[in-house]
């Protein structure tokens, strides 16, 4: 029992390590304060009770509280602090009462549990540093993790809960909000036999986050709002499955997988596709992992698969940003099912469900556009041997400029038994045959249309991908006259004397003209030494808007 203040270890000399209170086989009660230096331990015992308002701290690479036995109880008002690359609490069963405070630095773990039951009660406060810090690292079997607090401050590039072992049960019951920063995960579970039940709301305005990433069963009842951030995924199912194959169709027999179900509302993040070598998609729910290795002699994709899974939406997924996706599935044995509602909106294309590389999707619910002035929305995209079944009673409703209900290319398979409703400028079902390829080549130069997006292409020289020089408009220059005819529109390419599109071109429809050729000038070659030139969006965008 400690009622006073104990200081051990030299905080400036890591070789001067020590232990504040040491009782390997006994029970320890601390009412006072224990201060341990770098590479030191504050308290080492079998079963440890930190009484109300007591304090324990450790420096860098130290451990504040180490329980060799089974139990650590942290009562209300207790403060536990650890430095960089340190551990706040190490033990088995751990309980944090309301108003207890646990703070750890960069690259540190707040609680490391070897198993048993871990409970964070309502009002417990835990803060971690950046760069691979963790609120709870759990490595045990048949255990229970119960989180009832929303007062978790998770650093950048860090984790809330990491769960390893087998048959563990995690539940987060607090209905408050937890905010993620950048490159972080609220729950990461490698336990394919375990389960995750989440009722906590997760938000982020940052980039590349995951609310839940799991190999096992997930039931998400919380709301996830990543709509102010970029490149984040709400829920990701990753069930390890190694395979390599040529994609022609889905697997003939399906392997049972843990089911991941969303009951809440997910607002999908923005996508950032500015770097073709590092595209970041915002996705509501995703499943599977595949890598494309190339094509066989018949032009079929060869895929290496590392994971599959089974995702289900029974809630609402809202997609409002360009290029973002509601549900994504890739690889054989991967299944995506929508029983709920997927809402699409925005002034550029986004997608309700995207299926590829032998995955199978089922729509039993509703995929619909919402609001006005929508452009390019796609209900479901299916490609490279994947299949979509729009079931009887299901609805796909697309009210958008140039929208598509079901879109198949590259060997995607469509089975439609449900209702597809579109406005006059959209297409119910669009299929591109395998040989509908607009790639071009001349000499050693090839412009190759992407397999996963027929609206984009890359330049290859002698088989090597090159990055084209971007040409942008030069502001504050007088525009040149625009040479046009009844069927042709000229677009200057240099950016020095930019041309302008024709206003109110839709009026030509009254004369029976439904289309026009876009003629692109060669001026850019005068102002760039690059052999491979790509026009910037600032040159092209006015013409896209005109069209």
Short summary:
It contains two helices and 56 strands.
Structure description:
It is a single chain. The strands form 7 sheets. The chain has a 29-stranded parallel beta sheet that branches. Mean pLDDT is 85; it is low at 435-441 and 469-487. The radius of gyration is 28 Å and the shape is elongated. Among the domains are: 240-434, no CATH class; 436-466, no CATH class; 469-545, no CATH class. It is mostly beta strands and 547 residues long. The protein contains 2 helices and 56 strands. This is Fusobacterium outer membrane protein. It comes from Fusobacterium animalis ATCC 51191.
Tell me the span between the first and last alpha carbons: 79 Å
Please state the CA-atom Rg, rounded to the nearest Å.
28 Å
Summed up, the helix count is: 2
Task: Write down the overall mean pLDDT.
Answer: 85
Query: What is the helix content?
Result: under 10%
Low-confidence stretches: 435-441, 469-487
Kindly state the number of beta strands.
56
β-strand percent reads: over 45%
Q: Helix/strand/pairing class, anyone?
A: mainly beta
Biggest sheet architecture: 29 strands, parallel
Protein name: Fusobacterium outer membrane protein
List keywords for this structure.
547 residues, 48% strand, 9-stranded parallel beta sheet, mainly beta, Fusobacterium outer membrane protein
Topology:
Elements: E1 5-8, E2 19-30, E3 33-36, E4 41-50, E5 55-58, E6 63-67, E7 71-74, E8 79-82, E9 87-91, E10 93-96, E11 101-104, E12 109-113, E13 117-120, E14 125-127, E15 134-139, E16 144-147, E17 152-153, E18 159-164, E19 169-172, E20 177-180, E21 185-189, E22 195-198, E23 201-204, E24 210-214, E25 217-220, E26 224-225, E27 233-237, E28 239-246, E29 259-262, E30 265-267, E31 283-287, E32 289-295, E33 301-308, E34 310-313, E35 316-319, E36 325-330, E37 335-338, E38 341-344, E39 351-356, E40 360-363, E41 366-369, E42 378-383, E43 387-390, E44 395-398, E45 404-409, E46 413-416, E47 419-422, E48 427-431, E49 440-442, E50 445-449, E51 457-461, E52 464-466, E53 469-471, E54 488-491, E55 517-520, H1 524-527, E56 533-535, H2 537-546
Parallel strand pairs: 1-3, 2-4, 3-5, 4-6, 4-7, 5-8, 6-9, 7-10, 8-11, 9-12, 10-13, 11-14, 12-15, 13-16, 14-17, 15-18, 16-19, 18-21, 19-22, 20-23, 21-24, 22-25, 23-26, 24-27, 25-29, 26-30, 27-31, 29-34, 30-35, 31-36, 34-37, 35-38, 36-39, 37-40, 38-41, 39-42, 40-43, 41-44, 42-45, 43-46, ...
Antiparallel strand pairs: 28-33, 32-33, 49-50, 50-51, 51-52
Protein name: Fusobacterium outer membrane protein
Organism: Fusobacterium animalis ATCC 51191
